[in-house]
Amino acid sequence: MKNLKDLANAKSFKDIASPGNLKALLVIGLVKKLVVLAIIFVPQWLSAQNDQQLRRRSQFELLPVTSKDIVFVGNSITEGGLWSEIFNNARVKNRGIGGETTTDVLNRLYQVTDGKPKKVFLMIGINDFNSNPTNKDNAVQKNIRTIVERIQKESPKTKIYVQSILPVSKDRVDRDRELRKVNPDLEKMCEEKGVAYIDLYTTFADENGNLKKEYTFADGLHLNGAGYMAWAEIIRPYVK
């Protein structure tokens, strides 16, 4: 802050050209560039993500689920899995959409329940913390409960498997703190509702509760190939 004050009080080129002030100018220039880049590219990124969501939702409208299908529902973590290939089963359908929250899944759940699928594997909730970092009013737990109740009501014969939300890296400590509260609540809810709860968190968390590095990329959130294979081995008995 001292250099910024010096710049404001500079009375000559010599004052401005001092080493400290030049460094401050460079910082200011970098910040300005970052702001400009954010103004240009953040809206483009958000628009691209929204377009991707719309593309998948519109296809799901025209690709019906059937009573013989096993359906994976969730966000980008689910979307990234090549589930039909992993399980060598064309009846396994991926209904994950990147960026979605529990509310988004509720809004399109009819695309799944209308087909009365054989099984549903659900993992959702991590993106909710973007708009609600402290999970005020236990919104994630309440929405997942509502998802389960709607499936039970709209497709009573469907077997439901609620998967724990995966851990995240230490750089996302705010989400991790809330995750440690959410998953135990989900397990209790599943017991109450008579549906299966699958604990993925324990396998994917290291000794500090962070997502294991061997299962993720630099973002500490999304899974790599090894991560998906580890996930598949846990749920394979339930899929079959």
What is the gist of this entry?
This protein is an alpha/beta fold.
What this model shows, in words?
- By secondary structure, the protein is an alpha/beta fold.
- Helices cover 56% and strands 10% of the residues.
- The protein is built from twelve helices and five strands.
- It has helices spanning 2-9, 13-16, 19-62, 76-79, 83-86, 102-108, 110-113, 128-131, 139-154, 173-193, 201-204, 225-239; strands at residues 70-74, 92-96, 119-123, 159-163, 196-198.
- The protein has a five-stranded parallel sheet, with helices on both faces.
- Helix 1 (2-9) crosses helix 3, helix 6 packs parallel to helix 9 and helix 9 packs parallel to helix 10 (173-193).
- The chain is globular, with a radius of gyration of 23 Å.
Order of helices and strands: HHHEHHEHHEHHEHEHH
Shape: globular
Number of strands: 5
Strand order of the largest sheet: 2-1-3-4-5
- Structural class estimated from helices and strands: alpha/beta
Largest sheet: 5 strands, parallel
Q: How widely separated are the two ends?
A: 62 Å
Sheet-strand content, in percent, reads: 5-15%
Radius of gyration: 23 Å
Uncertain residue ranges = 33-38
Average predicted local confidence, pLDDT: 86
Q: How large is the count of helical segments? A: 12
Helix content estimate:
55-70%
Question: What order do the helices and strands come in, and which of them pair?
Answer:
Blueprint: H1 2-9, H2 13-16, H3 19-62, E1 70-74, H4 76-79, H5 83-86, E2 92-96, H6 102-108, H7 110-113, E3 119-123, H8 128-131, H9 139-154, E4 159-163, H10 173-193, E5 196-198, H11 201-204, H12 225-239
